[in-house]
Amino acid sequence: MQSLVANRATLIWLGLVVATCLSVELFKGLPGLNAPYVGGMAVTAIAFLKTRFILLDFMELRHAPRPMRLFAECWWIAIGAIVIATFRTNFFGL
Q1: CB neighbours of 44 closer than 8 A, spacing ≥ 6?
Q2: In sequence order, what DSSP letters do the residues of 3-54 get, joined into one string?
Q3: What is the dihedral of CA 72, 74, 79, 80, to 10 degrees?
Q4: Do residues 87 and 41 make contact, with C-beta atoms less than 8 angstroms apart?
Q5: How far apart (Å, rounded) are the C-alpha atoms in residues 94 and 91?
Q6: Residue 94 burial by CB count (10 A; 0-12/13-18/19+): exposed, middle or buried?
Q7: pLDDT tens column, 53-72
Q8: pTM beyond 0.90, yes or no
Q9: Which helix (H) or strand (E) holds 88?
Q10: Which of 10, 41, 45, 68 has the CB geometry, 3.0–4.6 Å to 64, for a possible disulfide?
Q11: How many angstroms separate the CA atoms of 46 and 24, rounded?
């Protein structure tokens, strides 16, 4: 049992589960959070952080050759920036 808890993949999986639960609560809306876009942007940010952990640890890119890992890191940052920019544009009409 102790080796299961000490395993990096298990700890990351547990963190992903907690992040998912937090996202669900943010999506439902927290009391005192008047602006729905704040919760939406927070859920989106959490989703992209989860994507990074999945890419690095479950798709085994953490120890991949440098160009492959660099491509994966740039990919998730670019896609996250595009999604958040689109999200912001829809709410603020920029």
Answers
A1: 80, 83, 84, 87
A2: HHHH-HHHHHHHHHHHHHHHHHHHHH--TT---HHHHHHHHHHHHHHHHHHI
A3: 110
A4: yes
A5: 8
A6: exposed
A7: 999 888 888 899 999 999 99
A8: no
A9: helix 66-92
A10: 68
A11: 11
